[in-house]
Amino acid sequence: MLYKELTNKQIAEVLDESPPKVHFHVRELLDAGIIELTKEVVNKSIVEKYYTAAARSFRLSPALKLQKRMNIPFMNLRCMRHTGI
């Protein structure tokens, strides 16, 4: 995905996962800015969305280790940061 544009269905095939399961994670990665929507292609009545990595490399926050140890869902951790907890 770093250099190639892929649809949700193509990502699911590569990962051998169901498209609905992958779609959830694609949305989370898109919201976090890790991937980006690069184009939309209309194929009959279906809109195919193509995604690619937003950067060549990523640094993960040390807060992710805290999240794993404390078993805090990612969304809750993000809310805690915004509220100053």
UniProtKB/TrEMBL annotation:
Cited Pfam families: HTH_20 (PF12840)
Cited SUPFAM superfamilies: Winged helix' DNA-binding domain
UniProt keywords, alphabetically: DNA-binding
Record flagged with keyword DNA-binding: yes
Gene Ontology MF terms: DNA binding
Protein name listed in UniProt: Transcriptional regulator
Organism: Weizmannia acidilactici
